[in-house]
Amino acid sequence: MLFARVLIGATVMVVLGYFVLLTSSRAEGALKTFGKYLAIWLFILPLLLIIAAATMGRRHAGPVMMHGAGMDGPWIRQGPGFASAPPPDAGRPPATQVPAIGAPQPTPAVAPPAK
């Protein structure tokens, strides 16, 4: 998919390069020189993009890489931004009940009055 997008963009750049070269051949002076160099750049840049897309597809497997099993490893949650997990034998902390906001508070148990 990446390679197809690059090929479409490269084709557009090469066509633009031909138009720039045709237009600059009819111009005079500095504009002719500028058009010639711009056309050369519009021929070289697509070649570099195609080479980059070809090597990127081979090295990084394109957009399929994000769905592989390599992204699920334990290394993904390591680093300075992530807190370390507690050791497995630490157990769960005791649960505390926090009443919801606006919920009626339970009445405290009072001892019956002494007689």
Topology:
Elements lengths: L1 H25 L3 H31 L55
Helix pairs in contact: 1-2
| Secondary-structure-derived class | mainly alpha
Note the run of SSEs as H and E: HH
Share of helix, binned:
40-55%
The quaternary state of the protein chains shown equals single chain
Gross morphology:
rod-shaped
**Strand percentage, roughly?**
under 5%
Q: Span from first to last CA?
A: 88 Å
The total of beta strands comes to 0
Number of helices: 2
Poorly predicted runs: none
The major beta sheet can be summarized as:
none
What radius of gyration results from the CA coordinates? 34 Å
Task: Report the average pLDDT across residues.
Answer: 75
Written overview of the protein:
- There is one protein chain.
- The chain is mostly helical.
- Helices cover 49% and strands 0% of the residues.
- It contains two helices and no strands.
- It has a domain at 2-59.
- The radius of gyration is 34 Å and the shape is rod-shaped.
What's this, in brief?
By secondary structure, the protein is mainly α. It is built from 2 helices and no strands. The radius of gyration is 34 Å and the shape is rod-shaped.
Key terms for this structure?
115 residues, mainly alpha, 0% strand, rod-shaped
